[in-house]
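Researcher: I'd like a structural prediction for the single chain below. Treat it as a standalone chain; there are no partners to consider.
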Amino acid sequence: MKIDNRKLDLHLARQCKVISDLRTVTSSQTLTRIRQGDNIKPATLGRIAKALCVDPMELVEDEAR
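Model: Treating it as a single chain, here is the predicted structure.
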């Protein structure tokens, strides 16, 4: 699964947070991989979504049409 960085940034902004605030739920290395557009595990997506109080589907990239 890939997280849409634009969506992630919007949710972070809504809560006045920065990406480094997510280090409490995942590693810096994983956060770097997210920024690079790499796939992450569903459990990681779940932890990030929970930390931002959003549904995981609000963070994933839209499928290519």
